[in-house]
Amino acid sequence: MYSNNSGSLRDALCFLMDEEKGQRIAFVQFPQGFDNITKNDVYSGSLRVIMEVELPGTDANGGPLYIGTGCFHRRDVLCGKKYKKDYQNDWWTENDKRVKESAKVLVENCRSLASCSYEENTEWGKEVSSPWVLPFLYVIAAKYAYSIGELLWIGGTFQEWWNDQRMWLYKRTTSHLFGFTENILKLLGFAKSGFIVTSKVADEDVSLRYEKEVMEFGAPSPMFDILATLSMVNLFSFFGALKRVSMDSQHGVLDHLALQMLLCGLAVVINLPVYRGLFFRKDNGRMPSAITYQAVIIAILANIGAFLY
């Protein structure tokens, strides 16, 4: 990390050494800047909403979030120490006590959730056509309408918002999954944390595709295995559902599959760049052939298994 503002350290010290409120400040968070971002931010890497909306908003409500970089910490607070003028307690003991109490509450909640009686006398299991689905649809629509409004308000585009939704989905099905798995293996003692330095140098063809906002799939990666497989499963499932609805239109199949088809259709639309990389692109940024064959075979087997089940 580097700072392109030579006065950032001085600005941070102005907060941390404030005579009246300095003892209440744990860290000073600076926004992160990004260069070479395309018009519609194809990889959703600029974090515009976080930097321009959420951080200033939380700053007005008691303090910004820590985003992992661009931050100056007060050394002692990294251990959980509190800063109060009249604070004389043993903060190590206090911190351990809170951790134990939180763990106890978590265990009790998990036991309740895992019990067989957790869903008794609840509205779980309603049919999709039930009026109970309307409040959920309203919440979903309001949430996405609000997120679109946020991005447009700070000068973004609808395509940029759509790219952000795509990368949100991709991160949670790939990198977040890998991170979660690695952390579990680490806790169980089967793996150790590592850091691999990757090359940041791109050739001319890659740069041209990036400027045209064409996604890059050329480098083999387990992430692409997952993305390709899930996209093909959704594609086959969507067309399979369409076939079933067209053949059994008189038996109310659409009433039972309407929401599933909607979600599956959205997944198909959001994965259009993946389909182009799998079947239509001829440049070096296309999906490797081995991944394409693997994804198609797994998707076919998954749909056959679902049909037989």
According to DSSP, the number of beta strands is: 2
Structural class, by secondary structure, is: mainly alpha
* Oligomeric form: single chain
How is the biggest beta sheet arranged? 2 strands, antiparallel
Along the chain, the helix and strand elements come as: HEHEHHHHHHHHH
Rg over CA atoms: 25 Å
Mean pLDDT: 80
Fraction of residues in β-strands? under 5%
Strand order of the largest sheet: 1-2
Query: Residue ranges: pLDDT <50 for 5 or more in a row?
Result: 87-92
Query: Which term fits the overall shape?
Result: globular
Number of helices: 11
Amount of helix:
55-70%
Task: Describe, in short, the structure shown.
With 309 residues, this protein is mainly alpha-helical. It has helices at 8-16, 48-59, 91-114, 133-153, 158-173, 175-187, 204-211, 222-247, 253-270, 272-280, 289-308, and strands at 27-29, 71-73.
Care to describe what's here?
It is a single chain. This protein has 309 residues and is mainly alpha-helical. It has helices spanning 8-16, 48-59, 91-114, 133-153, 158-173, 175-187, 204-211, 222-247, 253-270, 272-280, 289-308, and strands spanning 27-29, 71-73. The N and C termini lie far apart (52 Å). Residues 87-92 have low confidence and may be disordered. The chain crosses the membrane at residues 222-242, 257-278, 290-308. InterPro entries: Cellulose_synth (IPR005150).
Produce the secondary structure layout:
Elements: H1 8-16, E1 27-29, H2 48-59, E2 71-73, H3 91-114, H4 133-153, H5 158-173, H6 175-187, H7 204-211, H8 222-247, H9 253-270, H10 272-280, H11 289-308
Antiparallel strand pairs: 1-2
Helix pairs in contact: 8-9, 8-11
